[in-house]
## 1
Amino acid sequence: MSEEAENTEEVQGEEIKSEISSEEKDAESVQAEEGAETEEAAEEQEPTADEKIAALEKENADLKDQLLRRAADFDNYRKRMIKEKQDAYDYANANLLGDLLESLDNFDRTIEAAKDTKNAKSIADGIKMINKSLVKMLEEKYNLSSFGKVGEAFNPDSHEALRSENGDVKEPEIKEVYLKGYKLKERIIRHAKVSVVMPE
């Protein structure tokens, strides 16, 4: 190989080395810049202790506010429920009493009519009509029903025996009814007061 060719190769080799070295330096500087940017970003993202404390205090204040609001809402709800319950208790019989007013008015009319009449039968008929109307209203509108009739079998769960005597019966039987019993739907609200005939 000639000397000139050798020199050309050396020059080319040095140029290549120079380019590689330059590229390496560029890559290192790029990496250094990226590292610096990453550190700066990390420093920007990482809050200081004071910032952390301030954020926690704000979160704590928000949670306290929510808790106080919920406690106030619950207290208002509780008071409203107590009032509604008391109102329901105080006015539970308002409808029934309103329906009874008509019967009371009819009794007042009957009493007024009794002052001027000498016919006892018409007064008795008026009272019977009031009684029939009242019983019908209570049965149909309020599911109130009476029980306890002469001749029915005696049931200690629904009848209260005030007196008893032995007689010619197979099972205990009601002989006389002093006071009728009443049921509201299926619940007994007053036991029938009766006298009973017991088997001999």
## 2
Amino acid sequence: MLGEILTIAAALCWALGASLYKKSLLNVRPVTLNLFRSFPATLFAFLVLYLLGKWALLSELTLVSLAHIGIASLLVLAVGDILYFSGLKFVGVAKTVPIAYSYSIFVAVISIIFLEESLTAPILVGTVAVVSGIWLATSRTENKVGKKEHSKLGILAALGTSLCWACGVSIFKTILANTDPFILASVRMLFLLPVLGVFMLFPFGKKSSNKNLTRFDILTMFLSGLMAIGVGDTLYLFGLEIIKANVAAPLASTTPLFAAIIAILLLKEEVSKRVLVGTFFVTVGIMFLTLEQMFL
């Protein structure tokens, strides 16, 4: 029971993180948010690593493992998350989160093509549910200020996030065969920080966007990283140690539902019935894609 509680708590942390990201993006660029949220997450990851007594395992990493960690980390935490933040900025939490968290469908496709896994009935049902949910959540998207191109960009960004996360997670699966998950959780941040620092040198968007940061902006960015990457990922990993992965994964897939509820209650986003039904379909679809492993 403890493992299930920890995993659901992780999903809640990720949903809360998405809501904090949305608030931060009112005044900062996606690259800026990604950099600022990474500092507390990195400190938290290495602190947990130290407290668990796994510091010595860092010396066991090979150059090949480091290369794989670097590629996967940049796909997930740099490219994927920056696209994720762009989606949040343009179309909001309730639309971006269910699309981004549909990355399991891409993982399923990758596993079928490259790992030659069979297409089972649960995978087929889950795929149909996810695709239907995305269509419901994103069709007839409108923007209050009349910038329809922003809606299209936001949806494309969310889909790009899903693809990047899927590719990165697939590589992570290979890495975890020989690497401790807590080592992976901390080392991946070391690849992210310098790359984001370089990105900050380029003037994406308004040049003055980083000069007007308030204490509230900085605090929100720090809290979002600590909540989502730090606490959320750690709770999920602890949960995985207690319960099976094929039980933890569908529980973690409740993130879109938590995000939709938070978007309505805290962010006061206008969420239509189509978005709510779409979010439900996406969540059910993801659960089908993961739960089918329980019956093999």
## 3
Amino acid sequence: MKWITREHVKVDRVACPWLIKKFVDRDAEFIFAPADKVMAEAKRLDAIPYDVKDVELGRHGKECSFEAILKKYKLTDNPALVLLGRIVNGADTDNTLYHQAEGPGLQAVAEGFRHLGYKDDHALNAAEWIVYDALYAYCGEVVKRGKAEPSKRYCPPMWNCTEPGP
């Protein structure tokens, strides 16, 4: 399938293709178009639009597009992906829905990638997906240790945390 979104990707428009390719459509082809041309190009190319206004796989209330994809493709039974969705949400929105501590860090990393001079959105996605691979592994460990609830704090052993969680 072809999937289409706005060009000049940021957090959610990198996280969504990662999620789609890893868990929804291994043969996915991604197209990045000017915002005002996405819907026309989606129709012309028979592509699925995501992370654009007023589409099923877009923002709904305070939920980000990554979360819409999790729901649509029934991936919410994977607690590590749900936690990753909360982190993506925290990086891509005002972070008031989950108050996810990792969100601002992901936002900073994603913004840094945008300033490394990649030639286009495809190259930026290819480079940045390793971040999502690592975050997914982190989320898996957090879930395994029973620390995925926002009220609980995950502290990797090497940090030697002594303060209580938020």
## 4
Amino acid sequence: MMIPSIVAFVEKDYFVGRTFLYSSFAGVFLFLLISIALSNIVKIQNNFEKLVSFILAYLFLPIFMAMPIILCFDYVNFLDGWLEMVSAFSTTGLKITSVGTSDGSAFQLWLAMVSWIGGVFFWIGAISILLPLNISRFEIIVTDFPGGPSNKGDKSSNSVINCARQLIPIYVVITISLWFLLTVSGVPAFKAILMSMYVISTSGFEVTSYDANNIFIVEGIILLFFAFALSKSLFIRDINEIQKFRLFKDPEIRLASIIILAVTCLFFANSFIVLIEENAEISLLILFKHLWGIFFTVTSYLVTMGNESNVWFNDLYYPTSEMTVVALMGLTIIGGGVATTAGGVKLLRVYFLYRNAAQEVDMMLHPNSIPSKKGKGLISDNKSNRLMAWVFFMLFMAALAFFTLVFSMLFNDIGPGLALSVSALTTTGPLFVNAGYELLLTDVNEIYKFLLGIAMILGRLEILVIVALVSPSVWRK
């Protein structure tokens, strides 16, 4: 909060600056009091207690993060401020209030910082807390972090710190690299740092919603960094396997490439037919705009960012109507790579489900054949991984059905209820707005607001983490 405070003082917005500053002092003071009170208690958390702390962080940290917003604006009550920060901290990017749009640079920066911190927070927690609990363990290779988490219950209180020391520098370097490239391309420095934080955390807040002559170059740079949300293999590799790494041998990269190219071709063909039916003037420039816009938008939704391309935003035949909301929902449900900031079911689970379906068909055609096992180590294509992928997919569908039922009562229609549920559970906030719906908080009951916050937290933590809380095997670890 010190950084937005400095920004507000530079802009001579002293009330906002003091609010952030005093909120920061209050947080530090409270933390010191708790530290002093617990200083004589020697206690090392086991993995289950770390998991509980990890989950509770998403409930209580947004309360502290929302204090400057609640204190600065009369129209933002406690629950609305909490929901706004949950949306940012869970990297959902669903706009709840108008804060951050025209209320000064300090609030814009604060939303971007909370989203950026939320991305790295989940990244660290997935490696240091979820991995030792053996929750869907195929997702993260142990050898990625030599000397890191093991199969057994990790009693070391420094495991989180050790993972943070390895992961935060990578996260910072990627963010600074994107900020530098955007600045060189002509984006103002402050806007570039906001965009870089949003893109790296896949939070979904407004990124490309501004006019620029070089918007194609800007979107091209952003598209390159979307790749980091498709697979952790692009930035985390075991030292012994760096020489053996081949990009398109990674199942997540291959599956993402197939999905993006297939959906882009289908949408582009449909868009081309619409241009012919409308007797529109067709040129290579118009076709390229449509192709690029569809390609960028499809990739953005697959990594659960949810931003649409501005290259063809003002085009006469804007092809958004051709990109059906149902198809975009399907992309967000598939989601990005595991152990990244992306949400959704995740590409690796979808890959295992595909492999399971292919093997079942093969067994029906050749009953006496021996099932094949592809891959090696913890990401091998085996029965256990397929079972966990299927369990998660069913739990995700059950949660989606429940929240769709709840939010449909809020809108008296299943359409916006489904769109809001998918947006929350896949951490793709812009999907709800881009589908043509609007959420008016003044008309929303407090119970629905709280359930929306819970849905975003579930979407960020993933359903298996919550199931682990009631699993006796996890308690014993």
